[in-house]
Structures are given as structure tokens and as C-alpha cells.
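Hi R.,

Here's the chain you asked about this morning:
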Amino acid sequence: MLKKTTITIALTVSALFLASFNSALASGVYSINLKKKLNGTKIFAESSKVNAPGSLTILKLSNFDSREVACKASFNPGIEQEKSYKRLLKANANVSIRYTTSRAPNRLNINLVCRPFKGKPSNKG
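And the predicted structure, written out as C-alpha cells:
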């Protein structure tokens, strides 16, 4: 009786391991390569993947600079065309960029270029 219980537990654990491994493969596990060129700005960038049909990646940008900063993020999944987004971050502000593809890539390359903003001065007091 004890031997049957031990075998049953071992088979159940093995089945759970295989099921979780297969769902990891099905959810589109891919690597993200984030290349940053910050040009003296104090920007913190962090990318994360979201389990969703296809592929959803969120790039979070935080501006720890006292200046406004203009950033351009280019996403290249290799399976679809490269897509770029521009964002203007005020001093001490955060912004998120959501990027999706119809199917999960093998690797996602993100190029982030940020510069101090040299546009019209903001209308502050």
C-alpha cells in the first residue's frame, strides 16, 4: 500500500512538472535585449513580459533628472517590422510603453535613446 502511494505521488509530481514546462513553452518565453543610450540623462528603464496571446512587453521609464527628457524606444522582434515610440518625460515622472506582436518572437531587441529636451520651455509659475 505504501509503495503504491509513493509511486502515485512520484507520477503526479512528474506530470505536474511536465505540464508546467509545456505551459512555459506555450506562453512564448523569449529573451529581451535592452540597449540604452542615455546621453547624460538620469533615466531608469525596465522591461517586463506579460503572459497574453501573442506577445506583450511593457517598457517602464522613470526620469530621475531635473530636466525634461525626450526618449525614443525602438522595438525589433525580428518576426515583424520594427516599431518606434517617442515619449517626453517631465522631471521626476514615469511612463510606460506597451508593445505587442501577433506571435511571440525568439528574441526582442529594444533600442532606447534619451536626450535632454530642447523644445519650448514649460510654463511653470
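The mean pLDDT is 81.

Let me know if you need anything else.
M.
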